[in-house]
Batch of 3 targets.
Target 1
Amino acid sequence: MLEIAYADWLNLGFRWLHVIAGISWIGTSFYFIFLDLSLRKHASLPQGVGGESWNVHGGGFYLMRKYTVAPAEMPKELHWFKYEAYFTWLSGFALLAVIYYWGAESYLIDKEVLDLQSWEAILISVGFFAGGWIVYDLLCRSPFSSHELLLSAAVFVLIAFSAYFLTHLFSGRAAFVHVGAMVGTIMVGNVFFIIIPNQKKVVKSLLAGEEPDPRLGAMGKHRSTHNNYLTLPVILMMISQHYPMLYDNDNSWLVVTLILLVGASIRHFFNLMHTGREIKTLRWQWPTAVVLMAFLVVYLSWQPAVDASTEVEVPTATDVVAIAQVHCASCHAVKTTDPDVKKAPGGVMLETVEDLRKHSTGVLKQSVLSRAMPLGNKTKMTDAERKALGVWIRAGMPDGEE
Ligand code: HEC
């Protein structure tokens, strides 16, 4: 019989598109930030040109010039950069919907965090993305906006607060990806609502033979700089899904905060480097990033979901198989019984003692060191049961007395 796993195929298609669009967007974004910072002024530049930059690539030389407001006349052909951003958002939202809305019961909701119906959770999720953008945009338009540092601090607090809030609404994994997606939405919002419309207004004035308003370009530049500093943290939040140690903890807001600081410091280093400054003025960024990252690693390793290192009686193979049967085999079996899971995920079966031995590292990571599995703790696994699995694995997975 032809059995099509629609969710999996859509997941694959949207993910492929998302990664490609994301690479293109970030690639152009990095390039233009570099270009901007590498512009050099000299006396012979034409009227209206703020600087120029020589680049070499692909067997030829390029001379790039930036007209800070606009050239005196519209060029015949003008290349825009916007679809990369739009498609990154569209494909990302579609992917999120396939995983977290379609599979809301398993992926989005954790009944131990908050007992939500699927529709409620989905509504909150969508509202969150819209709300995040609105608050951010208001901050940028508030009196704060003239103090660059104060504004950055406010945006930083907004993101950390969202992480705190989301971990009290959704599963740890969903909370983390929602923070990333909210920041991503802000970034695309900047392109869609501010940068591109402002550029269109400038083009319109030029065509009408008027002097364009220089504030329009300056505003676009401002938002584009925010996007630049948010890029590295967002990428880590997106790939966090593969790392339960990142998303599965009680203080996600702290993890998010550290990721923001690490990513922004590294970005800052590259930004300064592109301006051509001497490396010795760049002393603090990498050390800061490394120290904060080390702190994150130690902090997260310090608090496994359950402590399986203490001396307690080692359970027998029969005991642990019984636990797996109740808590894992509804999804991880040749014949699954969970209505949302048609095939054992990742081909991981957890029905017999051989299965448990074969996948012991995965079991330890997903169910003992973190509470990533059972998904959404659907089967209500207790910490005592997690600990039993951990102790058995650490004791060398013995058969034990019958
Ligand atoms: C409600 C269904 C469900 C239950 C119950 C469940 N899992 Fe999973 N498990 C999944 C899904 C779905 C994935 C794939 C996750 C993803 O998409 O990243 C998965 C992935 C895994 C993986 C990683 C597989 C890989 O590809 O590397 C391991 C290990 C795992 N589960 C262990 C367990 C253990 C141990 C239990 C029981 C304590 C358990 N799971 C219970 C649904 C479930």
Note: The mean pLDDT is 90.
Target 2
Amino acid sequence: MTIAALLAALSLAAQAPAPGAGGRGGRGGAAPTAPAFVRPAAYPERPPVAKDILDRGRAAYGVNCNFCHGSDARGGEGGPNLLRSELVLNDKRGELIGKVILNGQGEMPAIKLSDSTIGDIADYIHSFKVGGYDITRNPPPSILVGDAKAGEQAFAKTCGSCHSVTGDLKGIGSKIADPKALQNGWLMPGGGGGRGGGRGGPSPFNVPPVTVTVTPTGGKAITGRLVRIDDFIVTLTDDAGTQKTFRRDGEVPKVVINDPMKAHKDLLPKYTDADIHNITSYLVTIK
Ligand code: HEC
Ligand code: HEC
């Protein structure tokens, strides 16, 4: 072998990556930015992203995109599944996603965000695992993505003052077998008004109605089921089933509304998505 051939062989060997030297964009001249490097089109493997970028991306996504594309970017709330989008797959760090954000597309409004925020959001979306379990294909188990153990703790903290899984909610996971109905049911037991209210059909629960007590000046208090109330009248149905209407003038007569579901209504805006999933995942285990 000539010296020249030997040198050529050595330099070829030097270009092969040393085992265990897995750092990305290492010091070597043959960095991944070399033009010959081509990303596979489908399910590209992305380099890991720093936690502070992901945290910023998650926050910005939560405020601007979650509402329509879902907290897991798999869509279903009015926007499409972003993880199956060709455009998202081909996006590197917001150069394609950003065009959609800044210009809007179809039903999606244009959203004014800075380039750096768009980059963070793009990194955050790309951090989702594309493979694995696809919630849009398996609607029923999709809401059982929570952690039942965390749900048990959340239940004790948030619900335990009024309910018990060995008392009034005994066997709730068997009584309402469909997790979606169960979730809508505990979120807003009276039905309606809840997140995504109306979609779940009639409430599986019989909750006590809203009542009202009207006390006319110098008269006797009358309590009944509230039928309607506005600034001018209040109408109730008394125990005998008779509907009674009172004219209202400011503080007269005295009107006190008792909504047994007030606690639930007040809690609604306080749950995080994680609370909701965890509590549902816990309640289905209460057989
Ligand atoms: C008001 C609802 C809504 C909001 C908010 C919203 N989107 Fe969209 N988005 C949509 C809809 C609907 C489409 C489908 C548009 C079409 O092509 O008809 C869409 C499409 C997209 C697409 C294109 C997907 C493709 O394959 O063409 C991307 C990317 C996208 N949205 C990202 C985002 C990001 C990131 C945010 C937050 C910064 C966001 N969207 C906020 C509703 C929304
Ligand atoms: C401040 C008290 C209070 C809190 C806190 C509370 N609830 Fe309730 N909940 C009620 C009342 C009152 C009803 C009406 C039915 C009844 O009297 O049991 C009700 C009804 C329900 C029902 C329907 C049960 C049935 O038999 O009709 C479910 C399910 C439920 N709540 C789950 C929960 C869960 C889960 C939490 C916590 C995330 C929670 N509640 C927090 C007071 C509360």
Note: Residues 64-65, 67-69, 78-80, 82, 85-88, 97, 100-101, 105-109, 111, 121 surround heme C (ligand 1) (CB under 6 Å).
Target 3
Amino acid sequence: MTYRALVVAGVVILAGLVGWFIFSPGKQENQLTSGTPLVQVAVPALDALALEGEALFNANCARCHGVNAAGNDGSGPPFVHLIYEPNHHGDAAFFRAATNGVRAHHWRFGNMPPVPKVSQDDITKIVAYVRTIQRANGIN
Ligand code: HEC
């Protein structure tokens, strides 16, 4: 094998590995189910808007903020928490967080990176979902 062929083979193998990490099926599920919730959450009935928000939340936020917004040990805080009651973190905080990211200031999880994949419309639904869960758990 020539040196060139070796380099080409190396690149192909690397690309395959990267692709596998990015596209391997069930990865998102693993991320969702791994990690320990930080708070107990009572899960309420969700209306249509909140249901859409739940799917978006699970796809884009639950990796760090936990299933049912219960937090994820080592990754991100729960929204079922007094810190995130609407008086302290209004809906605008969610739009800002997804658009600009968040500098670590309340917790020791590190910074939140921006989530450019979610649209403003998506965030409206996510907020509806989070507020429904919060209300059902006494965070008003
Ligand atoms: C890679 C992990 C990660 C992902 C993904 C993530 N977050 Fe965060 N988020 C964090 C961390 C960590 C904090 C806490 C920062 C602090 O205050 O220390 C945070 C804080 C927040 C805050 C509070 C902002 C403030 O003003 O204090 C909001 C709102 C928020 N996230 C919304 C979202 C939404 C909505 C999504 C999904 C679209 C999302 N996050 C996805 C890690 C993440």
Note: The two ends are 68 Å apart (CA to CA).
